[in-house]
Amino acid sequence: MSDDIIIAAIRQRLKAKQTDLNGGLRQRLTTITPVNIASDEKRLGFRLPPLLARLYAEIANGGFGPGYGLIGLTNGAPDEDIGDTAPAIYESFRRASTDEPSWNWPEGLLPICQWGCAIRSCVNCTDRNFRMQIFDPNVHEGLDWSDCFFEESASFTQWIEAWASGADLWGMMYGPDGRVTRALSSRRTAH
């Protein structure tokens, strides 16, 4: 599916529901300019997936989409959990934690969608395909935090296209045969 077709499918889906998890509440959606997107990319030190940048500029600076909606860039829709935008969350996560010396947030892994309970979908902006990963701190057991990251989709485009086509992304992760469910089951079996 081309980016234009994906954007049209998202616009169509938004007519019925702005996000998956906000209980039907509608918030005012505002876009961000390409200049402000470029400013955030400079601040972050990496480029966003081109389709994600288009969504922020053409549909809204967060507040729509999977879960509680995409987390906006500067001055956009904040994360439902901690009330920060994607750049602020990324910068906070990248800082070393004195409470958790083994904390090491991956470079270029931008949290863009919140599912509740601190679970976030993140796009790997250092990967040429912009792979999607789930971060779920609720399953942390190891010495480092690598056990909290799970592959979600081969690319941002595939991920948002699946949502635009009506896929249940939460079910694909945490349903009975979901990726995270299977990974956690394998982890329990190995112990």
Globally, the shape reads: globular
User: What is the radius of gyration computed over CA atoms, rounded to a whole number of angstroms?
Assistant: 16 Å
CATH topology: SMI1/KNR4-like
Spans of at least 5 consecutive residues with low confidence: none
For the record, what is the CATH homologous superfamily label?
Answer: SMI1/KNR4-like
Q: What structural class do you assign from the helix and strand content?
A: alpha+beta
Mean pLDDT: 92
The tally of domains stands at 1
Estimate percent helicity.
25-40%
Largest sheet: 4 strands, antiparallel
Question: Can you count the beta strands?
Answer: 4
Distance between the termini: 42 Å
Strand order of the largest sheet: 1-2-3-4
Which CATH architecture?
3-Layer(aba) Sandwich
Tell me, what is the CATH class?
Alpha Beta
Number of helices: 7
Topology:
Elements: H1 3-16, H2 34-44, H3 50-58, H4 86-94, E1 109-116, E2 119-124, E3 132-135, E4 149-153, H5 156-164, H6 169-174, H7 179-190
Antiparallel strand pairs: 1-2, 2-3, 3-4
Helix pairs in contact: 1-5
Organism: Bradyrhizobium quebecense
InterPro entries: Knr4/Smi1-like_dom, Knr4/Smi1-like_sf
Domain Knr4/Smi1-like: 32-161
Q: Can you offer a commentary on this structure?
A:
By secondary structure, this protein is α+β, with helices and mostly antiparallel strands. It has one domain: SMI1/KNR4-like, CATH 3.40.1580.10. Helices cover 37% and strands 12% of the residues. The chain contains seven helices and four strands; from the N terminus they run H-H-H-H-E-E-E-E-H-H-H. It has helices at residues 3-16, 34-44, 50-58, 86-94, 156-164, 169-174, 179-190, and strands at residues 109-116, 119-124, 132-135, 149-153. Strands 1-2-3-4 form a four-stranded antiparallel β-sheet. Helix 1 crosses helix 5. The radius of gyration is 16 Å and the shape is globular. The protein starts with a helix and ends with a helix. The model has no long low-confidence stretch (mean pLDDT 92).
